[in-house]
Specification:
single chain, alpha+beta, Nucleotidyltransferase, domain 5, Actin, Chain A, domain 4, Substrate Binding Domain Of DNAk, Chain A, domain 1, 3 domains, six-stranded mixed beta sheet, globular
Length: 500
Amino acid sequence: MSAFIGIDLGTTFSAVATLDQSGRPVIIHNEDGENITPSCVAESSPGAFFVGEEARRTWGIAPTEAAARFKRDMGSSVTHKINNHSFTPTELSAFVLKKLRTVAENSKGSIGEAVITIPANFSNEAREATMSAAKSVGLNVNYIINEPTAAALYYAFDNGQDLSGTYAIYDLGGGTFDVSIIKVSGQDIDVIASNGVSKLGGDDFDEAIKRIVSRKYHDLTGDTLEEDDYTSNDAEEDKKSLSRRQEVKARANRKLISVSRQEFENEISGLVTQAEMLCEATLDEADVEPEDIKAVFLAGGSTRIPIILESIKRVFEQEPIATANVDEVVAQGAALYAAYKGDKSNLSQAQKNSIEKINVSESTNKCFGTLIFTYDEERGQEKTVNTTLIEKGDQIPCSVTKTFYTIVDNQTSVNCELTETTSPETDPKFAKVIWNGELSLPSGRPAGQEIKVTYSYDENQMMKCSFVDVGTGRKTEVDMSFSNSKNDTEVLDINNFLVE
């Protein structure tokens, strides 16, 4: 039988999990025997690339020969250079996914369906890019799942007894931060509010360590500390040490620089405050108080940082819980979801028993709307406003239809625009247009013709929109899903470049 796998495609580290024969989600170790693989790509020889720990070390000492932290740029036009090669974040993610697929195949043989996790706050473009990367390396991915939801699924499974009540998932990894409020009954999970920051995580904490060391080095020597003399890898190791002790001795260009935990905490206090404010906003959106939260579950390696744990305790007024390895829970939850959504004929009876009670309901974490003309009574003139069709927090999958009307006689077209906002917003200046098109209309008609607009949001949090002229049946449609993604054509065939 083909194995189902769950992949946590992380900013700094990635992991792949599956269900064992007893039905428990387990991490598949890589060839080094490690449970996580660095999300780093390096060039070993001209045109030959590899992924993993050696690539991470290469990035640390020769950053021009490797690329890392590219997940933060998913869905954007940013490129990363490795020597003379330029790669999109989608292509670099494809390298990592190809590596994880090989790890799974070496352990389990044939791979069936895969589920990949993404940050809850990922844009539609970033979701499409993730799917495109998976397709380019031959992974059979029909579903993606938000990282905090995957973590929640694992904790609900791992608890040993049915959970019941309202819980929080605090997910702080290498590059992104998500917080979700969920209602759980057994393994029935309902996400009622979710927020995140696409660039807040361990990478930012590493940079804070580097700033401290650079300042102290300059005070000590009068010179500017070069990048190669204290790398991001060095900062990461010292950051981890500060979670265990009050002070570390950083080695920078043959100098020992003392860095205290207090100095580090002062340097990242603004980021911690940002995370706290997001937690408070999410509690407000969910309409719950801290005392309503039965437990706070942790995911992501950065939740090990003492000031983060103190912050969580301060906001939620309780000690957070990590009953499993915080680096693994997202991939393990994704493996459960893959089996839950996949072909049950490929499961053993024990595996079927494990997932038979699972029921996951996600909610939208952004608002989606369109730009329309309306009449401003106060100013006596027309103006453009953003109108929301799908609200943040709507349960998905969902579909909403609204009717609008042409505004002038003999109108021959309608400009169709899909907007995205983080909260209900009428001012078009604060609405991001993520797609636009045109619906042509026949001439000679009076104003007031019906235009029906339908937005559908599926389980992968992909948008499908239609703009229909009711009188003629003419329509303009867009499928903002991976199956029609522009990114598909932008991904190189990396299979011939990756060295196993």
